Amino acid sequence: MPNLLGLCGETPHGFVTHRRFGPLHSDLKQTQTSSRTMADQSPSLTTPKQTYRLLFACLAIVGIGNSMLFAVLPPIARETGMPDWSVSAIFTLSAVLWVLTSPVWGRLSDSKGRKPMIVMGLSAYALSTGSFTVIAAIGLMDHFHWLTLFLCLAAARLIFGAFGSATNPAAQAYVADTTKPEIRTREIAAVTSAFAFGSAAGPALAAGMIANLGLLAPLFATTALAIIGALAARFFLPNIEITPTAKKSAAPSSVWRLALNPSVRPWLMFGVALSAVTAVMFQQVSFYFIDRLGVTPREGATLTAVALALGAMAQIIAQLVLIPRLSLSPRGLIVWGCLVTGAGAALTAFGDSFGALSVAQALVGLGFGLARPGFTGGASLAVSQDDQGSVAGLVVAANGAGFVVAPVFGAGLYALVSHQAPFVLCALVLFLLAVYGLTSKHLVGAPMEESPPDQPGV
Predict the structure, then answer these.
(1) The pLDDT of residue 244
(2) Which in 53, 124, 325, 396 has the greatest CB count within 10 A?
(3) Positions of the chain with pLDDT lower than 70, given as ranges
């Protein structure tokens, strides 16, 4: 089984020579094409393995917090009298800023470095979650009208959308900086599994905390973890030193031109569609468990947390176990991922027991675990090294774009048509995406071959 971090072992397995890690990697050679160097004096991190453990932990924190919020916010809305649509609206408003700012932070990571963007994103996440938690606590004491509570919660979440969006593109570009093209999709899958790892741990932790410490305990814990992560990244994560050549490549308009590049655009279109499906399913699933199983909001939060944890575990298996062994191209990953996820969406629509719905979430997680790295890796392989931060920002924006309109649309279907309607629609869209992946002439990518044996200087 691959290293849990999916990035490196004691030997810098899979590292490329266009990055030099200063004192951390003095044995690595730097090629003449290098545009960046690692130059950091962090004394506590002496191996690549330690560096990537920290990066993995930082991304896992974001995954933990987001999965907890998905499980906790619907019951908060029900107990405070907020309408169901307000939950989707909170995520949608944040997603608008996420989509608009992610490419900007990705581009700035090309010119300012990966570390500053990661630290800023985690700090903003801590501020956003802390504010959200305090406001929710006041709301649960019946001190706010539901509309006032909604506006305040939305404002707190907007901090994450505007500034927390810096962490993911910078982290993805960090990985692209240090991996060979032929294994990049696999390594990106590994680092993004940190988010899935957090998503798996989050619901399980949330269930225990809600039962023993109260509905808001998971959010207080998330705030503390985000603060710790930001401080750890600030003091221990090696920085990337940018040369003037790389700074010039990050012109303000370059990221938007990159989005229109014929090699990149098809991957982004697929990512937006996949994001829309994700938004509809995950933002309705908590309500669906409550209504389909006939349980109370708090019981629904616990059951949803367990099912989402199963889905996140399946996603980890896909990214850390299946992808390294299947050797599929990015296009192959998105086709199989959409088919499996579509099956999970269909089972969700027609399942009527907790067991069936849990299996459905496992299928959804497994499918997303294949499709997302395929889309991300394909986009990364379509651009040059100096554009990795910019394309990472576009990828993160595409992942958030579906949350702009789709949740409200899904909530409308849920309320006005039937509880099953959003999931039936998602299944149909996913099968159409699989057909698109099979037939499109633009979604091409080299197979993910096993990396060669570790060699000094590689």
Answers:
(1) 55
(2) 396
(3) 1-49, 199-200, 240-254, 407, 443-458
In whole angstroms, what is the distance from residue 439 CA to residue 353 CA?
37
* Domain residue extents for the chain: 46-236+263-439
Superfamily of 46-236+263-439 according to CATH: MFS general substrate transporter like domains (1.20.1250.20)
pLDDT tens string 391-401: 888 888 888 78
The tens digit of pLDDT for each residue in 150-164 reads 999 999 999 999 999
Other Cβ atoms within 10 Å of 132 Cβ, number: 28
